[in-house]
Specification:
Layout lengths: L9 H10 L1 E4 L3 E7 L6 E5 L7 H18 L7 E7 L8 H14 L9
Parallel strand pairs: 3-4
Antiparallel strand pairs: 1-2, 2-4
Helix pairs in contact: 2-3
């Protein structure tokens, strides 16, 4: 299994929250912070308000898959934190992926050739 670039430490999440730019849509909130790292990392936050652990992990997997499939379209050297809103538990993969790409477009982090 390939290594997945994710944000795991609380201090890294806090750095993105405090110094990153945030934009939101109905399903997700996305914080983006530029870093000196060569790769882009993602952190996913799903609160208990969204649902039980099965629901939360399911949504986490959907967002991680959206990130994995589109990692080549997103600029490198970023830390991205995605916060899931409760409305997302009702949605399928296509809607979650669309919301993720919509926020990437709003943040202008999509590479030019992929727009």
């Amino acid at each position: 299994m390939k290594h997945f670039n994710s944000i795991k430490k609380n201090r890294d999440f806090q750095a993105v929250y405090e110094n990153g730019k945030s934009l939101a849509n109905k399903l997700l909130v996305m914080y983006v912070k530029r870093t000196d790292r060569p790769e882009t990392r993602i952190g996913i936050s799903v609160s208990k308000k969204v649902g039980n652990s099965v629901v939360r992990h399911h949504i986490t997997r959907l967002i991680r898959e959206s990130f994995r499939l589109h990692v080549n379209q997103v600029e490198t050297g970023l830390d991205i934190v995605v916060v899931v809103r409760p409305a997302a538990k009702e949605e399928n993969y296509e809607k979650i992926e669309s919301a993720y790409l919509h926020l990437c477009g709003l943040h202008n982090i999509l590479k030019e050739e992929s727009k």
